[in-house]
Structure formats: C-alpha cells, structure tokens
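note to self: dont lose this again. the chain is below, predicted strucutre after it. 99 aa total, dont forget to put it in the shared folder this time
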Amino acid sequence: MDGFRADPEELRGGASGIQKCLNPAKDADFGALNRSVEEFGNLIVSGKFEKFCDTWDVAVGVLGERSTDLADELKRTADNYERSDAEAERLVSPSHAGR
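---
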C-alpha cells in the first residue's frame, strides 16, 4: 500500500461484494405468491401486489445493470492503480536513475 492508501484488492473485494448483494433479490419469485392472492379472490390486493412485482422486477434489473457497471469500474480502477504503481516504481528504481 502506498501514500494514497488505496488497496487494489479492496477495490476488487468491493466489486465482488456489490455483485453478490443483489443475488438474493434476483432469485425472488413473487409469481406463486401473486397467484395464491388471486386464488383467494382479493383483486384489490392482487392488482397492487402485481404492480409491486412489476416494479420489483424493473428495480432489480436496473440495480443489477448499475451494480455490474460499478463493479467493472472498480476492477478497472484496481488494475490501473497497479499498473501506475508498477510504472512509478520502475521510474524511481535505482537501475533507472542513471538514464
């Protein structure tokens, strides 16, 4: 770790954590629950629940796309950080000082 106090592995870990946090939401299946509400004949609840399910699906999709983009950017930042660090180290190394 250097004076910037950034750790590329922490950035990669954050990227992984972002992607993992939405996994439970992706697996939520409200279809069966919605059908059971409809079977009981409560159309008011059923309609509202169906709207909730539709909103949930859209929100999970949008958050999934954005979290993937953010995770990818964190990974690129970690890679760039390591490349910059390696280049800076190379430039200040004793073997490069006489050039």
